[in-house]
Structure prediction request, 422 residues.
Amino acid sequence: MYRIILIIAFILLIGSCASMKKPLPVNEAVKVQYLHSKVNSKYHDYSPCFLSDGSSFLFVTNRPGTLFNYKANCNSHDIWLAAIENIGDSAHKVNSIQNNSTSDPPGLGFNTNYNEGAMCFSSDFKKMYFTGCNRADGYGRCDIYEADVKIMKKEIYISNIKNLGLSINSEKWESMPSISPDSKTLYFISDRDSPSKLSSIEFDEFPSIKYTYERTNMDIFYSNFVEKDNKWMPAKKLTKIINSDENEYSPLICPDGKTLIFASTGFEPNGGGYDLYYSKIDSTGNWSEPVNFGTPMNSEFDDYYLTISTDGEKGFFSSNRKYPNLYLDLYQFNMTSIIYDVRTISWRQKTIENVEIIIFDENGSQVHYINRGNKQVGIHSFEWDGKDENGNDCKPGKYYYQIFAGDEPPDLPRILTVKKNN
Prediction:
């Protein structure tokens, strides 16, 4: 009898140990703050995305003022624009907010009566990729679209909207695009390998928390762009190192082109629901084991839809930690420790021109002049080695580069960073 009691006690001990969660690491390099109430509402506010100068961002909301979805008898999810102003090392003040439905020319249907969702920009901010649901030219519930973009101060002009086709989209559900800094790889979420079928009109861009937990195979896919053929290759699923047996969400390929941030319910440690993780790809194409961002970025609730500035110092993400099971809010964060370098210099050419590149520091002093010679029409990119014109390593910090191609107007300066050795 005594032996039986010992065996039962041992089994219970093993079970309790197996059920214990690993504690989340504490990330002291991150400060998190609830975003200003002029942006957060009593509705869903999620999927933030920086604009070029970092002084404004897009996000998705279903608050009053969005277009009405008569089929679902509720507000649709639309993309809105917010302007922000730095007022401290971790706080942003919202100056204004408006529904961004401007298009050039008008009537192209950027925001519709159905749902629009997660979006991203190319590094030159001339292309936008976004989620559109239940559209006449769609292949599934939600598809990924491409559009030309012109950013004028706090206004965005959208034109030439087109579905990216069956190399990326399917008869299932595709969403949450993220384009690499060289514009040659698109990452996104798809449930195409899921055995479940969608039966509810509520499941569009933003699936209910309960439903995503019950379904499987929400995975991260990617597609490569072949410029000589001017087309996207058939999408492939990322490795099992990234895609767990549960659900992945909201991928973000960082400005270094090597760091992937995403949300998942399938890795440990996990604080609860979706947690934010990052992984890095090496020179051989292998991804590292995902690393949890820890607290305060992650919580016992759902944390996802992260966007980060080019310099890696600040960003936004979405969470339901304030109102669990009700709606998502936007949070801002600042980081005192940068997890990547930004060395990719990229541009797109409309004509064959001689290309000159000037790299300068924060004071406007020239650091490096590069002449790339005559370049063909299309997308070009290369990695800066972080050295000045004399071949010396540049000190850690922010740098900027500007492209001059023939008589074409130069692009706005874009950020490069040199990270500390540690």
